[in-house]
Amino acid sequence: MLRTHHLRFAYDGGASFDFPDFRCEAGHGLLITGQSGKGKTTLLHLLAGLLTPNEGEIWVGDANLAALRGRALDRFRGQHIGLVFQQAHFIASLTLLENLIAASWFATGKKDRAKAQQLLERLDIGPYAHRKPHQLSAGQQQRAAIARALMNNPAVLLADEPTSSLDDENARTVAELLLQQAHQAGASLVVVSHDQRLKALFHQSIGLS
Amino acid sequence: MIHYIARKNLMHRPLNALLSWVLLSAGVAIISLLILLSEQVRRQFEANIEGIDMVMGAKGSPLQLILSAVYQIDAPTGNIRYTEAQPWMRQRLVEKAIPLAYGDSYSGYRIVGTTPDYWEHYGADLAQGRAYSEDFEAVVGAKAAQRLGLSLGSTFFSVHGTGGEGEAHEHPYRVVGILSPTGKVVDNLILCSLESVWHMHEHAEAGAEAAAQEITAVLFKFRSPMPVVQWPRRVAESTDMQLVSPEVEVSRLLGLLGVGIEALTWLGWAIVALAALSVFVALYRALEERRYELALVRTLGASRGQVLWLLLYESLWLCLAGFVAGLLISRVGLWAISQAAERELRLSAAEYGFRWAQEGGLLLIVLAIGLLAALLPAWKAYRIHIAQTLQYA
Known about the structure:
A: alpha/beta, five-stranded antiparallel β-sheet, B: 2 domains, six-stranded mixed barrel, about 60% helix
């Protein structure tokens, strides 16, 4: 379960944002939409612990993410938050499988090879396990990024414009995969996007203005 | 895992790392080869003068006398009369005086007329056969026997001079003894009595009385240090001979070599410094390319420290690979040089083991340089602002 309270963030000498409170139950999906410059990505980075809010609370289960700093924040991020970006990025020198294993190692110090293999199968990219990321298509890369985000059974799955660079068919598949995997893993899914195609798929959505 | 990713990153764009690796290997190879060479030259030179206090020979270059009489690698300074040397050899303070007479060779190996004291001095035993007792009997050093294929009872014709070509003498030598190996100069010699050398030349220069009773040098070992100080002057003033301390000449020679070795060592360090610069540039450029990747690793839960070490390890692994390659190259170089040295100078016995004191120090310095070269890129990686980097990727 993910919940925010009075969240506020200001860039140094720049724009400041006040975000509406919201909550997202485990296994459910929440779509956050809004024009460019309304703070969609900023909100996502706050939720991921990549930025620290000036005010407010972010509750993941019974931990307040906004109060964590440094190594504790790094650990929390690795273990409880899965991130998917508009463009999938990987450690270019490692294979897909190794990228997933690295995700578990950085978060927990353990190399969960079985889980990595299982996730690649589940997302239909098992045959590419030993390929390098750049050898895959954009759609396949995005699937792999979702698989990686799920490696550590995160409580929260965050996605930043996960479908914007994909064609209609791939966009639909990726969005459905995100919802389905979040449901299956019991994670709260938050997607920020201006992609109008997604609205039909999400029951719950907020607009930033 | 960080080590693994660091190595994978190196292999991922091998061309980026290639220049650094090649430079580092070259620098390490030069330095390490010089360490090996100077150590072995020193040992070779010092082992062969052990127990020889002074060398007597014809006037000329003292260094040349030592090189020819002790190491058998230069032409003699000339001949001296045995009768003139004998009074000095019989002095009370002389513990051992070994006369040497050169002239002939067989297939490039020198034939030296001397007494059995000579090989005993170098710690060689008769592995087979006996010492020579008559004219034209020869005792052969271990390596010479092996290379020339000589065994007990073999006969061979010597050639005038040491060049390997020249007029062959008519009277053959017969092998009566073969020496045990010592790793010293005696291994590469063919030994016979002084009389054999003299009589061979009487045959060759029939009618001429000149060659008789001449020797080339005498190796002295004294009972007291007194003659070392006093004799050289007396010999120089009263005779046509000189008395030279091999230790002095060898340390002068090694001093000259030392200057050259030091200059080359600096060259080696300069190349290592270039390698460090190249590591720095490669990592710095890679950092610009991989900024997003490093931010991503941070989102996976990696700490700042882990990202820092990712870059440091990359440099350290590269430096280690360069060091190992350099070490191997230096061994191959040593092997090639020792082959040549054995062919040309008859010096041998190369040792290939790791020199913990010097090469261990070299390793530490190389790793420290690698760490230094990676420090700035690693620090920048440490400081990466995740959210900004991801946003503007």
